[in-house]
Design goal:
CATH superfamily of one domain: Alpha/Beta hydrolase fold, catalytic domain
Number of helices: 14
Shape: globular
CATH topology of one domain: Rossmann fold
Largest sheet: 8 strands, mixed
CATH architecture of one domain: 3-Layer(aba) Sandwich
Distance between the termini: 38 Å
Helix content: 10-25%
Strand content: 25-35%
Length: 763
């Protein structure tokens, strides 16, 4: 057995976006893979039988496919991808040809993927798969964190495994635009192109008869077209809207996104003029259309007086002919994840407080009604005092029962609830508390999800609905084995939950990853990395992440603190951080170091602290403490001066909701900014940023770096060109890991090589 090497990252596959077929026999999923030749993370589409009887079958290769959705009859599988236009509407093969070509098809690479196999033999082979380490599968949008899948200020996702759906400046790049494509799972052949929008498609859903789809697409008028071309030609960017930028999207414009109903066979599209997107959240989350069995289309929009100055996202429904627009909510919630019940009588969705992201997001169920005004809707999970997990959405098990992923004390798990009342119950005990869950979906009596295990990687698993309450591991079916070859000879860390009391007597929990050769019963202190999650409205759970496994393999104990402000421990625990910054999180991280040292697990003289996004913010707060216990630090993609970042990042609303406006509350902004105490820094500090990060702008990293270097403290600045609020491309992700390791080794008193990479270099 051997530890992971950084080059193994090229072989890493991250499953996400699971979709179960209507008969429950097949699952589709997306897997994020590396393309070393182009230095890109690319997503591909797979299908597999839900009983695990066959290996997953690849449908596409390197086409950035996403959002797999089955037609209501299960005969077709649609998805969104930016591919070259197809040359034929349909390519059919007879059964004899299928049998002869089966092996060849498995190996074949096409511009949009490989041929789907005959439904009789292959529909069973379909399957589905960002994980939090899709940590940024498309709509982890920027990998941001927030309760209920809503984006908060920062990226919780591990930078080493994330990738974003990058939109760029208005008008986008020249080349293929994302469109809806569909495989015919009965006839076989390559996917046919369903939509053809000049600006591409953001999201879509099938109509109840399977002959139409609803698609969300930007639709510029003539004047807006001229402006988009102006921007493409490197002309001036002109903005009048308040929300002027969005991380991973770019500079924003006034072009409206509408819903269109598209005929699958002809491609003819009809715009629904009253179904349009608006507001500060729309560029990141879209309209999220959901077409129900009742022939009503649900979507999200903000129609308040100042939509760019509001976090509201209301639920609307409309007829497919564009008539009878109804507003179901009362502009007091941010909603997402719309899903109709099988009979079309009810709509489930995620709802959170638009101005308080610490408050747990909940699943609500609406009776859409038939009249004007807000519809009746009620919470079915609120009594749990637990938030719907990041990017989580509800799924119907049957006409009377909803399930959803929730954060529950440092774990993402399934909750099942009757649709008519707030009486949820935790389910799926076979998952155990040793691995976490993401992207659950249910249909046809089958539940599928990605399970992430620190000791075994992450894969798609299924369970029969009837076995949801079984605690027997044999009730589960493993559908994929994406990383088995890479992990076959790898020594992976043992993962443990550790709790301690902080300075205020509050119990704090961390997820701790131990080196493979470490015996926690012996007094054998190791170097330690305090790796701090982002958010702060997020949490850590036991899971496989390449970075954790890599550092543990190098001999480090890695601990991930669920500090005060983290979700999954209830509203009161999360809201302790509301409106303040610095003191609570740093105390929780530092007392965690002390607790691990008291166990004899770690050497405090060889202790290192790092974090990405809000974790970078907390890292800076740690090193600006009067007495910082860490040996060296790395603050990644963070904010260090909240006054100067206001208006230069894409989170002006978030700052205002928690701290007010900087010109009205200057003392608050000074108090929450680590730059105010930068004179205390004497810890060697690595600072990183994305050149195009508009969540935590690179000027923040420059400001911190120069302030530290000015005092003669060892420091290094790393800017990742063309990266947003993540480090997604493989070469850069590997560089990031090697840079962190080099920085820690370079300042480790036990490392004899004074020339170790990471000494106090200047840029």
């Amino acid at each position: 057995m051997a530890e992971l090497e950084t080059d193994d990252f090229y072989d890493l596959s991250i499953p996400s976006q699971v979709a179960v077929s209507p008969d429950g026999e097949t699952v589709a999923f997306v897997a994020m893979e590396s393309d070393p030749d182009e230095d890109r993370r690319r997503s591909s589409l797979f299908v597999a039988p839900t009983d695990g009887s066959r290996d997953p079958h690849r449908l596409t290769r390197a086409s950035d496919a996403g959002q797999p959705k089955w037609s209501p009859d299960g005969a077709r599988l649609a998805f969104v991808a930016a591919r070259d236009e197809d040359v034929a509407r349909k390519v059919g093969r007879d059964e004899d040809e299928e049998d002869e070509d089966e092996d060849e098809a498995d190996a074949e690479e096409g511009s949009g993927g490989e041929e789907a196999e005959n439904a009789e033999d292959e529909a069973d082979a379909e399957e589905g798969s960002g994980g939090e380490e899709a940590e940024d599968a498309e709509d982890e949008a920027d990998a941001e964190e927030g309760s209920g899948g809503e984006e908060a200020e920062d990226d919780e996702d591990e930078a080493d495994e994330d990738d974003e759906d990058e939109g760029g400046a208005p008008g986008g790049d020249e080349g293929p635009k994302p469109q809806v494509w569909a495989f015919d799972m009965e006839l076989g052949g390559d996917a046919i192109q369903v939509t053809d929008f000049d600006e591409g498609v953001r999201q879509f859903d099938w109509g109840p008869e399977g002959d139409r789809v609803v698609a969300a697409a930007r639709d510029p008028d003539e004047e807006e077209e001229e402006y988009l071309q102006q921007v493409r030609d490197d002309g001036p960017i002109e903005i009048e809207r308040l929300q002027h930028k969005a991380n991973g999207v770019g500079w924003l414009d006034e072009v409206t996104t509408y819903l269109f109903v598209v005929d699958v066979e002809t491609g003819e599209a009809d715009r629904l003029d009253d179904a349009y997107g608006q507001g500060a959240r729309e560029p990141l989350f879209g309209l999220q259309p959901a077409w129900g069995p009742n022939d009503r289309i649900a979507f999200g929009s903000n129609r308040t007086d100042r939509p760019d100055d509001s976090g509201v996202m209301d639920v609307y429904t409309i007829d497919p002919d564009g008539d009878d627009l109804r507003k179901l909510t009362d502009s007091d919630k941010r909603t997402s994840g719309y899903d109709w019940s099988p009979d079309g009588e009810h709509l489930a969705f995620v709802a959170g407080d638009p101005e308080n992201w610490y408050k747990p997001a909940e699943v609500r169920v609406a009776d859409p009604g038939t009249g004007d005004g807000a519809a009746e809707h009620w919470s079915v999970t609120g009594s749990l005092d637990r938030t719907v997990a990041l990017l989580g959405s509800p799924s119907w098990i049957d006409e009377d029962t909803v399930m959803a992923p929730v954060g529950d004390e440092g774990l993402t798990r399934l909750v099942r609830a009757p649709a008519d009342r707030d009486d949820p119950e935790r389910t799926f005990p076979a998952q155990t508390r040793d691995r976490t869950l993401a992207f659950p979906d249910a249909d046809g009596g089958t539940v599928a999800a990605v399970l992430s295990d620190p000791t075994a990687g992450q894969d798609v698993w299924t369970v029969d609905v009837d076995d949801l309450d079984a605690d027997d591991p044999e009730s589960l079916h493993r559908v994929s084995a994406l990383n088995d070859e890479m992990l076959a000879d790898a020594d992976l860390p043992e993962c443990r939950r550790v709790t301690w009391e902080n300075s205020d007597g509050v119990e704090i929990e961390a997820i701790v990853y131990l080196p493979p050769d470490f015996d926690p019963e012996e007094d054998d202190p190791r170097p330690v990395v305090a790796s701090i999650h982002g958010g702060p409205m997020s949490y850590d759970a036991p899971e496989f992440r390449f970075g954790h496994a890599y550092f543990a393999g190098q001999g480090y104990v890695v601990y991930r603190t669920n500090y005060r402000g983290s979700t999954s421990y209830g509203r009161e625990f999360a809201e302790r951080l509301k409106g303040i910054r610095g003191d609570l999180e740093t105390d929780d991280v530092v007392t965690g170091l002390e607790a691990l040292a008291d166990r004899g697990w770690v050497d405090p003289d060889r202790s290192f602290v790092t974090g990405f996004s809000y974790g970078g913010i907390t890292t800076a707060n740690v090193v600006t403490m009067p007495e910082d216990p860490f040996t060296a630090a790395a603050a990644e993609h963070g904010i260090y001066d909240f006054t100067s970042t206001f208006g230069t990042d894409d989170n002006h609303l978030w700052h205002e909701w928690e701290f007010g406006l900087p010109w009205e509350n200057p003392e608050t902004y000074e108090d929450i900014s680590s730059i105010s105490d930068v004179g205390n820094v004497d810890t060697p500090l690595l600072v990183t940023a994305g050149e195009e990060d508009w969540r935590c702008p690179p000027t923040q990293a420059e400001q911190l770096y120069v302030s530290v270097r000015k005092q003669g403290v060892p420091a290094k600045l790393v800017i990742y060109q063309n990266e947003h609020h993540n480090v997604g491309d493989p070469d850069r992700a590997i560089h990031r890991l090697e840079t962190l390791e080099g920085w820690f080794e370079g300042h480790d008193p036990a490392v004899e090589d004074d020339d170790a990479d990471g000494n106090e270099g200047e840029t």
